[in-house]
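Write out the 3D structure for:
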Amino acid sequence: QVQLEEHGGGLVQAGGSLTLACAASDRIFSDSFMGWFRQAPGKEREFVGAIRWVSDGPWYGEPAKGRFTVSADGARNVVYLHLNKLRSEDTAVYYCAAGSTGQLNWVRSYDYWGQGTQVTVSS
């Protein structure tokens, strides 16, 4: 039973950076992974990146290529999403999630979800 809470969303200018954090109440120690997704109004939820608690990976979706990075602090049960070179198209609610089976870029692979944090990029 895992509870997740995202922090760090807000308003940022295009070209700027923002770091999101996801605090987990418990760690899934066996073959678990943490994912980041985002969803804009009228759009499907899309995969951003993922990492294992042992720091295997990370793996990225197309939106993250060359701009975003995922890292984990196992000692504190926190995963981060570093958003760089932000564009207006990055405006969305960003979610972290925990899973242990399936393809890590599939929404259905995740069992636990945070409430999300809003990221708004102004141009």
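The radius of gyration is 13 Å.
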